[in-house]
Design goal:
The chain is of the alpha+beta class and about 475 residues long. It contains 16 helices and 19 strands.
Amino acid sequence: MIDLNDLNSYRENNRIEAKKALGGLPNSLWETYSAFANTLGGIILLGVEEHKDKSLHAVNLPDPDIMIEEFWSIINDRERVSLNILTEKDVQIEYVNGKSIIVIQVPRAERSDKPIYIDGDAFKGTYRRSGEGDYHCTKDEVQSMFRDAAAKAQDMLVLENMNLKVFDYESVHSYRARMKHTRPGHVWESLDDEDFLFKLGAVSRGKDGKRYPTVAGLLMFGYEYEIVKEFPYYFLDFHQQLDDSTQCTDKIISSSGEWSGNVYDFYFKVYNKIVQDIKTGGNGDEMPVHKALREALANCIINADYYGRQGLVIVKKKDVITFSNPGNFRIGIEEAKSGGVSDPRNTTLIKMFNLIDIGKHSGSGIPNIYRIWDKQGWEPPVIVENFKPERITLSLSLGTDSKKVRVKRVDKVKVYDLQKETIIEYLTDHITAKTSELAQLLGVNDTRIRNLIKALIAEDIVVADGAGKNRTYRLKR
């Protein structure tokens, strides 16, 4: 909750919207409600105007009680608003210097409730929030929200327009060999390929009783040219680059035609590349960093929305690896970091990887990565969630010597940008912050934070208030 006693120090941003509302509830209120609910949540201030210097000031609503009654009447009308996700405590009359205003706190909607839309039409009435204000969602964005809202996981869909010839059986046999090694004597070991795939969830029965591939099966074991028939934007890309001035020294892409192009084979091709420069134990065993990278790669593949635009991209540079996949978190980023809560997009893919001992601990992968990076003395992982387009990016900086607690200098372009995004996200939540708070957030020193802030100020995104130890930073609009 913002400090209303210091209202004029706040500015509108992607978490705060002010509306004068002296003529009653503005129509744009419902667009903002939809936008906040479908993005990261936010606060709507009615009876507050923005001055020329962008500062916010109360104007005194004449009949706030009547306005709130009308508000509840409209938000509970399913023809006007698809769903009311607010409770009484979320809508309150407050007083600023004796002037009455209405404060509406809109939470981020649960994925099962999205999209939140207005005027009875999801494709015309769904909005999201960006630094530029409320924007109308595209058809693809709305469809993505509907997919995530479904109780049934995306990858359980049965593809009755395909047959079992879509599978690369070399991939299937490789998988079975790995499973035999990790789970010797398993009851499925003696099954033929089709029955094995059926038990695994790669094949299921259609409405006619016949067996067809599932989405999970197609992604895991299909040929790339078959996968793109269901997922037009499907693309897997790994490339290695020594620095920004050199071309890629190694590249693996799903459309090359040189291999199957499915996610199973991609995982093992890429895993071997990303760990090849990292020291193992004396007997060649995996070290904690190897296991964390394995988890990061698996999470990237398992949680991608393959119907979404843009593909899955993994970039390895000399001192940073980034994992980027289409789709958003189905839980909050902070929940994902704390662990114990899991809401996976592709549950059957998880099962398939689990059976060969990959990604075994649901809900603990991200916290484990943070823990291992902290123990190594490396810069903390950086996670950025974008909505336009929907995308998750995890950036992992790499040190050269795990015994040194000194933070290694990392890729200036990629990680710097991701850290700036993290600061912006924090300031939308907390309105203002000191250098020490931001340093603790990112796990870096004050000098690094000052450099990041200097860049954000130069980009006209952040402004500084006060001086010395009392200096704070906030978003500018």
